[in-house]
Design brief:
about 220 residues
């Protein structure tokens, strides 16, 4: 096969195929990680596989967003990958001392939130229905990012709080994958409902689970 003969559309289709497959495996691994006993080998394996699937989702979403000029997808990719990345970091960083990579990641997360609000303002002027989606996800990016920023600053992510943060962020990344599946496969108006619905339904469960862990 002559690589030079591959068109932009073919590259985009290949990236999209990898993106979808990685999303499907990520959802399966998330379900397995939740069902397996925490801290055991099967749970860790499922969690690590989930993370690398999220890496694949991120690494395909970024070039796709650039090729299509889709800033919305670019910002959502940063948002969802940060949750998976920080979720893994909280799982393995038992001392709660942030590295330079942790600080960079949380800054990217909060920057994506600001970017979503700027894009929401543009969408509002253009009467784009995704304005609500960007406002909600932008707020979440800023809240979650600032929460982790404070945790890094005060080095509080130890013990039960570390486990709770691991749970929160991993589940947050899973919500992002579920949201993407719904948006792609369910064609109902208004479209912003399907972007926000998984967050609205699953977030209370995460808070309940977090409270249970902290107790």
């Amino acid at each position: 096969m002559d690589v030079s003969s591959i068109t932009g559309n073919e590259i985009l289709q290949m990236l999209l195929t990898i993106h979808i497959l990685a999303g499907a495996v990520a959802l399966l691994c998330a379900a397995l990680a939740i069902s397996f006993e925490k801290g055991k080998k099967r749970h860790i394996l499922a969690g690590r596989t989930y993370f690398w699937c999220m890496v694949a989702i991120f690494l395909t979403a970024i070039p796709m967003s650039m090729m299509t000029g889709n800033i919305f997808l670019f910002l959502i990719a940063i948002f969802s990958f940060y949750l998976a990345f920080s979720g893994l970091r909280f799982a393995i960083n038992r001392k709660g001392i942030a590295t330079s990579l942790d600080w960079m990641a949380v800054c990217f997360m909060m920057s994506s939130g600001v970017g979503m609000w700027v894009l929401a303002a543009i969408y509002f002027v253009d009467d784009n229905p995704q304005t609500i989606t960007l406002l909600v996800f932008g707020l979440l990016a800023l809240i979650l990012g600032y929460r982790d920023f404070k945790s890094h600053k005060h080095q509080t992510a130890t013990g039960k709080e570390r486990i709770a943060k691991h749970l929160n962020n991993m589940m947050g990344g899973t919500i992002a994958v579920i949201t993407a599946v719904l948006v792609v496969n369910v064609d109902l108006e208004p479209v912003w409902v399907w972007w926000v619905l998984p967050t609205g339904l699953i977030t209370p469960v995460i808070y309940w689970w977090t409270a249970k862990v902290l107790k």
